[in-house]
Amino acid sequence: MKSVNRSSTASKLLKKSVMKHFPKVELHRHLEGTFPVKKLFELSQNNKLDMPTDYKAFKKAVQFPKESSPDFLMFLAKFKNDWYRSHNDVSFITYHSVKELKKDGIFYIELRFSPEHFAEVNAFDREEITRLIIDAGNRAAREDGVLIRYLLTFNRNKQTEDEMIALYDMLKNSFGPGDIVGIDLAGDELHYPPELFTRFFQRIHDDGLYKATVHAGEVTEPRQIWVAIRELHADRIGHGVVCIRDEELQEYLKEQRIALEQCITSNYQTGAWADESHHPLGELYRKGVPVTINSDDPHIQDTDLTDDYIKTVRYFDFDVDDLESLNLIALNAAFLGPEEKERTIKAYRKRVAEFKAQYL
Question: Could you read off the pLDDT of 93-115 as tens digits, one per residue?
Fold first, then answer.
């Protein structure tokens, strides 16, 4: 009888019309990869950018082909930083990006963005751009009842360590931990290993204002994850798929409750893990390693977080209790204070109970 009920529940969870309503916690999504394509097209048209003026052609130009083989360089080529001509452009695309979250069933999100990405081309003031993004994102989140916090991303192949420290020092004096809760190191981990940024992350650790998450072990060896944890004081690891090859590392992550922010679709498209049906997330979860489900860059990927949830049901035989467990892992790994975390977990459990009653 139990297997029949499980099968019936799974068939419902495999329907996007159902799964999109499941309350989700997301710890790894880049704002720069979240832009709704129709709004990005509108921005391109208004600013007369050198992009296709036909929507279908534009969509093809800005998104990774869904049926394409993995191609890391093609994936990276889809990111552009010259969309913006004014502060209003930045507010516009941020607001509409956050308005998309409710459609994906987002309950709580730590949305990461690079002030440098939005400011570089037009030499916008980085502090002002950061405030604009947070204000626009908060406005959209309040309207839809989404809980949102922010991570500042620093790109290892676009900023030197000294530039990172200078920008961090400027921003930390302007923003408290209420909105910004963490610092993210992203970019080319092959050519810019984590040990190049030890001074920067030691500064963050010593200040004690923000937690740290580091992209590591996506396309490199487990050693980079060890370095990110031991030398950069990483509280979470972005991707970390290669930890499946290091059992000692798996045990350490379990003992220290260091969560992996994993992204099935993104890892396939970039070639980090070319077999979605055997992505490490399923096995790591069964082993008790703290893993979380994330979308990474949904508009680039021509997908959404709900699609990745459906993949966990199809590929790993996850049921609704597994999905709830994964989201509780994410909330426990969230960069919230203890009291706020406790309140958020309680509210989340209630939301899941409501989902089960209504859809299952």
Answer: 999 999 999 999 999 999 999 99
Q: Which two three-digit tokens encode residue 268?
A: 């396939």
- When pLDDT is averaged across residues 68-73 and rounded to a whole number, the result is 86
Alpha carbons 156 and 20: distance in angstroms, whole number: 34
Residue 8's pLDDT is 80
218 is known as an active-site residue: yes
As beta bridge partners, residue 47 has: none
- Residue boundaries of the structural domains of the chain: 2-35+94-359
The answer for residues whose C-beta is within 8 angstroms of residue 189's C-beta and 6 or more apart is: 156, 215, 216, 218, 219, 220, 224
Q: Return the structure tokens found at 78.
A: 């889809």
Instruction: Show the beta-strand stretches assigned E in 161-275.
Output: 180-186, 211-216, 236-239, 259-262
- Among residues 100, 189, 218, 261, the one annotated as catalytic is 218
In this predicted model, what pLDDT tens digit does every residue of 30-45 receive, in sequence order?
Answer: 999 999 999 999 999 9
Question: CATH assignment of 2-35+94-359, given 3.40.640.10, 3.20.20.140, 3.40.50.10540, 3.10.20.310?
Answer: 3.20.20.140
pLDDT the model gives residue 73:
80
For tokens 């459906």, the residue is: 310
Q: Which residues contact 12 (CB under 8 A, 6 or more apart)?
A: 18, 359, 360
| Among candidate residues 245, 197, 182, 195, the one with its CA nearest the CA of residue 217 | 245
Task: Kindly provide the b/e burial profile for residues 3-26, where b requires at least 16 CB atoms within 10 angstroms of the residue's own CB.
Answer: eeeeeebeeebeeeebbbbbbbbb
